Amino acid sequence: MSQDLPRIPLLINGRLVPSRTTEWRPVINPATQERLAWVPMATADEVRDAVAAAQAAFATWRKTPIGQRARIFLKYQQLIRDNIKSLAATLTAEQGKTLADAEGDVFRGLEVVEHAANIGSLQMGERAHNVASGVDTYTLLQPLGVCAGITPFNFPAMIPLWMFPMAIACGNTFVLKPSEQDPMVTMRLVELALEAGIPPGVLNVVHGGEDVVNALCDHADIKAISFVGSTRVGTHVYQRATLAGKRVQCMMGAKNHAVVLPDAHKEQTLNALVGAAFGAAGQRCMAVSVAVLVGAAREWIPRIVEKARGLTVGAGTGAGTDVGPVISCAAKERVEALIARGTDEGATLELDGRLPPLDGQLKEGNFVGPTIFSGVKPGMSLYEQEIFGPVLCIAEAATLDEAIAFINANPNGNGTAIFTQSGAAARRFEEDIDVGQVGINVPIPVPVPLFSFTGSRASKLGDLGPYGKQVVTFYTQTKTVTARWFDDHGVSGGVNTTISLR
């Protein structure tokens, strides 16, 4: 292991500490294969230490006044805002997305931090006066205890910021396990959280792979786990953690469709489709990976190909870059294998993004250019698997009803969109489509934090989504209090052996 690269620390009880592990993995710039840092695979003892620190801190943090908690996040959002350029640069170096997209990654997380600063309004209970003679009933929303989060590589700023700010604002303490592929920007956000005033032990970070994930799922002191990532890992986390008695929310894989009706505004629709399919190199769980062209819109394929061909592939730091690299060599090989299988299985390759022309060190990068298939049908690997790369599948439908049936037959339900100028068609689509998040002339309908992320069906396990009102419910326990007070002159009516409160 090279000694001149930085070693990423753990965060335990307010201190950035070096790991005692013997297993380290490199953090690699996916555009150049340059090694940036070493990330530790935390030991079992280190995971236990992090949870113990969170458990000890909970006793005090849960009693911290709600206004004091809110003020920490007011300061935190300003620190993120002040450092957004440097955060984006770190994110681009380790993850590959363009600098503009990296800033968007940070900003969408910042919006949740701003929402966490409003916790005083979000965490209010209910009260009913005089529900019986002299009896009041009210609810308290109380924190659960130690919570944990497991985050993916594709949004190393936004998704951690979906998790720990809301959990901590609700009075919980937190143990975060970032993706081991790009943990550096996450750690910088954690350092800013400490600077904002989060006390020792309230936020802790451990790095690692499957062993650390399992340890978090199994630990008796962890009360809730939030996960974003692949369906395979998410299903494992949900089953293992719920078996251990925890609350769990898992946002998982997707196959997002965009329906294009022939009356759609053509230029805006084409731009939206291409941007949503190939932005972030297709590595978004809300990327448009299937376009369903209805009726005469099937004639738009050449224009989609033309626009995609005009995108620039390169390092995220390069001026004018539209499509950066995928995260790893393994991801590149997987995407290229699915492209090869698509032609073998009968789809028409309209645009081949394999081996994009690049110079110098970028030849070593994990680049796949925009790729488009038409004639894609259920049963093909391209359609059945989440490609998680810059590949757009085009399917066709004769009518809107046929398109709706096509989408509803897919097991995933993360997001979908319709492009049309018909209010009646849009209304029918939003009514009849069985997908959790719907865009109308909006290709990636991720809601702002006033609402919650509401993927459904095979894209989600657990009833409550991240951020927004739903996550306050997820991170709190409702306690109902029924109270009666007597003044000194109260006269007892004697023993009452009935259930009545009269």
From TrEMBL:
Q: Which keywords accompany this UniProt record?
A: NAD, Oxidoreductase
InterPro entries, from UniProt? Ald_DH/histidinol_DH (IPR016161), Ald_DH_C (IPR016163), Ald_DH_CS_CYS (IPR016160), Ald_DH_N (IPR016162), Aldehyde_DH_dom (IPR015590), MeMal-semiAld_DH (IPR010061)
UniProt record similarity statement: Belongs to the aldehyde dehydrogenase family.
Instruction: Identify the gene encoding this protein.
Output: mmsA
Know the name of this protein? Answer: methylmalonate-semialdehyde dehydrogenase (CoA acylating)
Q: Which domain of life is it from?
A: Bacteria
Q: What is its EC number?
A: 1.2.1.27
The Aldehyde dehydrogenase domain covers 21-481
Extract the Pfam families matched here: Aldedh
GO molecular function, a single term: methylmalonate-semialdehyde dehydrogenase (acylating, NAD) activity
Q: Which GO terms describe its biological process?
A: L-valine catabolic process; thymine catabolic process
Top class in the EC scheme = oxidoreductase
Residues spanning the membrane: none
